[in-house]
């Protein structure tokens, strides 16, 4: 009788077992994190707010309203509306709880309900006035033909029967805009780029573009100027923005001179005080 040949045992490599164990542990940790997040969110909804928080929110909204009125009143309308530059692309970059309802209403009139959403608009007098009032919450510029095509082909979507429909075929365009002679995406691009007679119909059909949030977010860069000329506009704007700081500098460091000192010396002393106050010694500001 022949001897039975022993069969090889089925085994799983140790690497696979360790990976499976790590995945299970990660899944458990992730589940606990989600449960804690949901629990914290529910507790935050029922958290007791202090009166100071309501006062702060109210003051922020009132200050936003005051600043909006000042921007619309003091700034002259920008004279860049020409036949060659009548198209603007507006992107919302901010604005949440500290926004006044009137400011939010202006943003909604531009169909900018979400942050990092963008729309095409015609740069007429009404639009420019709205953009001035909501300037801290939006950014805008002149799109070229390539940018318009990229937006429509990559992120374009239309509204049909109150449903968002991606622009994946010309049939969608023909169904919505065929009565205006716009039958394909190229017709949409041409109508927007040239701000044609049916521009309003096309932009009303298009849904606001949902743009991707920048990886490094939006960071403001401060320009450094080693020399500032002493003019009424320059000195007035800087001193008005730092009026409180200048007063504190004067009280603490005594940089203001007597009433008989010259204007140039007095202004120079104020700037010297601001330099020390804001710790800008490496970028001195001199009045010439």
TrEMBL record:
Keywords: Ribonucleoprotein, Ribosomal protein. One of its GO terms (biological process) is maturation of LSU-rRNA from tricistronic rRNA transcript (SSU-rRNA, 5.8S rRNA, LSU-rRNA). It comes from the Eukaryota. The keyword Nucleotide-binding does not apply. Residues 12-74 form the Large ribosomal subunit protein uL30 N-terminal eukaryotes domain. Signal peptide: none annotated. GO terms for cellular component: cytosolic large ribosomal subunit. The keyword Ribosomal protein applies. One of its GO terms (molecular function) is structural constituent of ribosome. Belongs to the universal ribosomal protein uL30 family. This is Uncharacterized protein. It comes from Anisodus acutangulus.
């Amino acid at each position: 009788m022949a001897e039975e040949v022993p069969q090889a045992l089925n085994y799983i490599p140790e690497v696979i077992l360790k990976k499976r164990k790590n995945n299970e542990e990660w899944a458990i940790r992730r589940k606990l994190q989600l449960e804690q997040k949901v629990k914290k969110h529910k507790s935050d909804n029922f958290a007791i707010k202090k009166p100071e928080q309501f006062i702060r929110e109210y003051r922020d909204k009132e200050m936003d309203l005051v600043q909006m009125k000042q921007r619309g009143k003091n700034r002259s309308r920008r004279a860049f509306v020409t036949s060659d530059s009548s198209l603007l692309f507006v992107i919302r970059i901010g604005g949440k709880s500290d926004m006044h309802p009137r400011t939010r209403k202006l943003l909604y009139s531009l169909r900018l309900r979400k942050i990092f959403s963008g729309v095409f608009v015609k740069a007429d007098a009404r639009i420019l006035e709205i953009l001035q009032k909501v300037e801290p919450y939006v950014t805008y510029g002149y799109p070229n033909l390539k940018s318009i095509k990229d937006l429509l082909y990559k992120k374009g979507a239309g509204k049909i029967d109150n449903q968002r429909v991606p622009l994946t075929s010309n049939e969608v365009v023909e169904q919505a805009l065929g009565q205006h002679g716009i039958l394909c995406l190229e017709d949409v691009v041409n109508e927007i780029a040239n701000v044609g007679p049916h521009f309003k119909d096309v932009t009303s059909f298009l849904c606001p573009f949902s743009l991707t949030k920048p990886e490094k977010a939006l960071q403001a860069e401060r320009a450094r100027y080693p020399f500032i000329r002493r003019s009424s506009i320059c000195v007035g704007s800087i001193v008005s923005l730092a009026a409180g700081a200048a007063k504190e500098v004067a009280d603490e460091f005594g940089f203001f001179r007597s009433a008989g000192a010259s204007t140039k010396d007095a202004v120079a002393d104020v700037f010297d005080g601001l330099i020390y106050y804001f710790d800008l010694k490496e970028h001195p500001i001199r009045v010439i």
